Model the fold of this input.
Amino acid sequence: MFVMLPTPAAAGVGAAVSLFNDYRFRGYTLSDGRPVAILDLGYDAPNGFYGAISGSVVASNGDGIQPLRLAINGGYVAPLLHGITADIGIVHARYSTYSRLAAGRSYTEAYVGVSEKSVGARLSLSPDYLGSSRWTLHAAVNARKDITSTLTVDGELGALFPLGGGYSRARWDARAGVTQRIGRISLHAAVTARAKSANSYVARYHHPTAFILGISSAL
Done:
């Protein structure tokens, strides 16, 4: 949900828990506009390989707290020249019926990216984007700037390109956010936006812009 620029791996295990008022993925709500709680676990190996698992639950309409998403991610980060790093990996995510997806409830995506200290770019290729059985390519550029030692602004601009059949036009998405760190706690605020065109991936229509608030803590 928030920009993470790849950096050279440092050995260690990390964990964080987060709460957000909505779960937006490339501008679309996958929590039906409802609050979510997320647990992230990750490991960075000394040789550059990394792995992560993320699980989330949603405050559903009428059924209380329900599972929303489980994702597994693995990849490799390597330093290149002049402070630039390369990142390659794959992610598989599975969503519950509470995600309001129109078709299927899982997807797999391979990605490759490059970044330096504050700017990055990534290409992501999926054969079954959000369970639609359609090939897609998502291109994104992102940036991050430390305003102070505890205040960071960041943003991302992306476009989704269907690669065959059905939809031919790219669909853009954007996000701009700010993070304030207070010790181990981080406060998040962001605005997300997307193209207004209809899509076949999410079952319900939601406004193309949204204001996202959240709080996270390292464990």
